[in-house]
Amino acid sequence: MKIVSLSLSQPFRRLARQAAALAALACMAAGAPALADELPTFNLVIRAGKFYPDVIEVPANTKWKLTIHNEGPGAEEFESIELRKEKVLAPGASSFLVFAPMKPGTYKFFGDFHPETAQGKIVAK
Questions:
Q1: What are phi and psi of 45, to 5 degrees?
Q2: Which of 31, 38, 41, 104 is deepest in the core (most CB within 10 A)?
Q3: CB neighbours of residue 46 within 10 Å
């Protein structure tokens, strides 16, 4: 039995690598929206240096998503030292944070631009 070795040209090898990389990205992207949609999602609005609601109840021991919308008039930051999360939002901006499963308890968060009025807590039950 004779073993035949095929030699591919450099442009063809590059094209094959690119096709494989695109196929892998397409597979990952196809699964990503389904995973994100399955997360329990909670909403938080920042308005005039305050959080609404200021208490968010979430399921304990469950991964979850927090969507944040800053209605302005200025920039504000969601920050939790305990949870090691922070997100700065310009006026009118929206974003989200994904939280790992949390043990039952109460976790404080605040707005770094208005720390005296932008106070809240997440209660994991």
A1: -115, 140
A2: 41
A3: 26
